[in-house]
Design a protein that fits this description.
Four copies of one chain form a homotetramer. Chain A is of the alpha+beta class. Helix content of chain A is 15%, strand content 30%. Chain A has eight helices and 20 strands. The first copy, chain A, has a five-stranded antiparallel beta sheet with strand order 4-3-2-1-14, with no helix packed on it. In chain A, a hairpin with a 2-residue loop joins strand 1 and strand 2. The first copy, chain A, is globular. Chains in contact: A-B, A-C, A-D, B-C, B-D, C-D. Chains A and D meet through strand 6, helix 5 and helix 6 of A and strand 6, helix 5 and helix 6 of D.
Chain lengths: 312, 312, 312, 312
């Protein structure tokens, strides 16, 4: 990693014991609870819910802003041909909070779009007001970590001059959860994205990410005040590909949990029929990002990437 | 009604056409939609959901404060022996926003409590910042109306010196929805509360309420700024009674819709076992309010009130 | 105090070093900063503002709810003749969030009201979601403490059946700040309220309060979820009295800071002129609470209470 | 304009009478008020404040998201050599809500940055939840309009791959206000930006903007839900230039009002000294955007642009 932190003392947010908090809708009311070892969720009011994974999930975060790192994995950097040099620094874009989605959510794909890409990531949740801090100090501002899927409608890649507002910002394009986790050493975990159960992305967070969350927070907070609840998406490894209605996409991170969503078709927007706004486009640049380059895929993922888009 | 408004022009919020907006959780994402005539919900993104009543509901409001009228129906006033005289004015209490619950919610009854009472009501949702207005001006501040259940744990009647914080403020004690409605003449509607399908409260809003929402808003806004989303609960007619786990309570208001919730048992709080705080009590005053006076009940409701607490 | 906590280990929120965070409006932007030892405020962006007390203050809290203890000092209990017995428990009321006011704020007194009373208090700010906790666990939910003034328009004492919505809930009736403080042993501090510089209330928090914040949080959180930012007002000692336009009221708590506000006249509400709502009343019960009983006042405060209402 | 609306009926938000609402901090409390014709602000509580322009201003908006149009004026399009063709469509970026600043605010320029550029704009404030609407329907979603300054630290132009997060997103870089205005025909207004009193940008909104707010809302809401309070910045005309500490920048729009801010120096961020993050850079591309091309400036602005950066 580009910026070492003092490993002689693990930051409190990564020291055990592991605590996972989830937010669920039970019979009309939103409730927080803590996961027990046996897969049951103990709501704060004392109710113990047996099959945690079958509950109705809300995002475990309530941010005022969501900031995402473009590239934070060496593998992704090579794939997109934007390899950071040793002097390079992270770059960012944003997603609106209306993009938030919960575990087992529907990820909407409009009828006139072709390329909805997955990007499995881990998210950092800010725990306290944070501005003008050093990387060492930044650790104290972190509340916990969540699995996340930074989905993108690549059909809009050719518009917005790089902000990716319409690529990354559409409603439902940020599934996050199922819980927010403290007490886990993030750098010992492995992230895997699956499509219909097949592994399509895989990375060891400690070995393969370029910048840690402390560095990224200190970087952003040089100029931008982070508030409790704010979310930072930490980038994805290589092999982002597009998925289709019916596909089940999941981001599973050891120690943090498994998040899934289902791609769901919706009609094209009404205004599009009137010719309003940039139409989804299918250009070489769109395809380059949406479909990737198969020649670089390691053998054990090749077959998965090929089969992943065919559910059943 | 105590304070006439110029009926020669119906306020805009009560003029047609009727529009009902609901907020549902669909596959992890909260979404607004508009009810269609045939019982389907058309989400704003274009999806049409066939069986609206079977959806997962969120409260259709996001208030910064919830203020409730103690007594606004002549029948309730007589029953509680607090009959307002002609010079009388409304009085209020509050519920915290954590009490909000959605349609088909679970209404929690702790194991050490005996008397959880229903109170069917209509709620007024504030649509714009409002302070120091007259009753005539207040109509423009109203966004719409919702059915609501102002549930109360009467076991805490003997504490809090009248604020009813613990009676009315516990989590889940304010089911509201399923939608927020504009374009309906509130004063031509009839409110009915049912327990397990049997009518237990019934009142014609125009004929039996003492103060209209315009009067109540003008009264409160004399000293307190109302903000968009704030909720005012307009009081309940007579025959509030207590219900038990398993009971299905509903508030149905013609023109506005039908809201239901199910009473659900939870354990007593952990701190109660340590002797912390006022214990639930079963005193004559608690019983007077919780159980009511059967001699005043009209014939056609008597049998319902007797049978309502026995589900099945 | 009624409920001991394990003094062999002071809770983290009361262990040093002292940290005071303030929120100020500097040239149009709200900013957080940390107090330095020399009375300067260091904004998070690096600016150091010389005369902290002369800044423009915002409340250092952003609660979803504000809950207040009716009586938590033995002296106040005796004065109001509501002396809790050993078995007694705290009772509560609420203030809407629109009542919040900052340091050096204007405390509004409508022209048709006579009795605006001060109550110097300390406030507890909740730092994390909290439900169904024990008193021992409750300490971890506390973010910090603030001076506060729980102002009340006693002219509305005869209405609202004990909820005090109009007594305590009007806009501006909750000055709080200037900062939120951690790292101070609350139970070693002394609270003083002054009017125009003269001490009118005085109490040692450790010696004279009946319940600690951990007890109160555990009590409330038996049934009500507390959220980050929520505020609990911990009651006032004896000798609340009414003040007039021009009076400067302050609550100074050793270790926590000094909060002040100025009583400011405004016109009576427009709706009052139309006869809407309960009119301010001047009854024996109103006077009993608003003016107190001078015979019980200790010698050293008597002259102050007499002179305090005459500024200049 | 690119997309006509039915001028035979002016949308309600542009029909008179003109109403301007401002939000000020008066003695510690935030308050809304309405401007009177004579330059006085009538607070909702009845107080009338004589010299409205001398008050302490808060932003008159509370958005969940802020979306900005890159280019919406023909003059700006030519200047930046990104002239939209007839088939072209608007593109967008975002600013975090922490960038909000009030009238008479301090616009912060870190010591290590050189190019802080002004962009006078009008902002559209969303009044209701809005998704999947046509341009005609979009008018009903608009609450009002505000003057705004979309300030940018062009030193970060070379990073963030086009999202401009650090260019446009730093704290204080979005002065907005002083009020939010309804009842003014936006398309008959003229926007002027001044630096130290000298006009540096000037455009007739109706004649020179390419897309109206109805078109932009319909475009964004194809995929992104807009919520009440959300802000859309509608782009700037040509002649954005950089300003220095001490400069007073103002955006004055006939009918809407005059907003000003003062450029204020702050230290470089602490993390920058540790080598964290992209350093401010002074490249040809940065200079091209920050300094513009003087040869294209009309005669009557040339002298102003030359003199504007020298206060006094």
């Amino acid at each position: 990693m580009n910026f070492e932190f003092p490993f002689n003392e693990l930051p409190a947010v990564m020291r055990g014991p592991r605590v996972e908090r989830r937010r669920v809708l039970v019979g009309g009311s939103a409730y927080w609870g803590t996961m027990e070892g046996d897969g049951r969720l103990r709501l704060d009011d004392g109710r113990v819910l047996a099959d945690a994974d079958a509950l109705t999930y809300l995002p475990p975060v309530n941010p005022t802003k969501i900031i995402a790192v473009h590239i934070s994995y060496a593998s992704r950097s090579m794939e997109t041909r934007n390899k950071p040099k040793p002097t390079d620094t992270p770059t960012y874009f944003t997603k609106p909070t209306t993009a938030l989605n919960g575990h087992r959510g529907q990820i909407l794909k409009p009828a006139d779009c072709t390329y909805l890409n997955y990007e499995g990531e881990y998210a950092v949740v800010v725990g306290r007001t944070c501005r003008n801090v050093t990387p060492d100090e930044a650790w104290d501002c972190i509340e916990g970590f969540c699995p996340a899927l930074d989905m993108g409608l690549q059909d809009f890649r050719d518009t917005d001059q790089g902000s990716m507002l319409r690529v990354k910002g559409a409603d439902t394009l940020l599934p996050i959860g199922p819980g927010i986790v403290r007490g886990v050493n993030l750098f010992e975990q492995t992230l895997r994205t699956t499509v219909n159960g097949l592994v399509v992305q895989e990375a060891h967070i400690g070995d393969e990410t370029i910048w840690g969350p402390h560095y990224v927070i200190a970087d952003i907070a040089r100029h931008i005040m982070l508030l409790p609840g704010d979310v930072i998406l930490m980038g994805t490894p290589c092999h982002s590909r597009s998925v289709d209605p019916g596909d089940v996409v999941a981001c599973e991170i050891t120690g943090l949990g498994r998040l899934e969503g289902t791609v769901t078709a919706i009609d094209a927007p009404r205004a599009s029929a009137l010719g309003v706004g940039h139409a989804p486009t299918d250009t070489p640049e769109v395809r380059r990002v949406a479909l990737g380059f198969d020649e670089r895929v390691p053998e054990h993922l090749k077959e998965n990437l090929r089969r992943a888009r065919r559910p059943g």
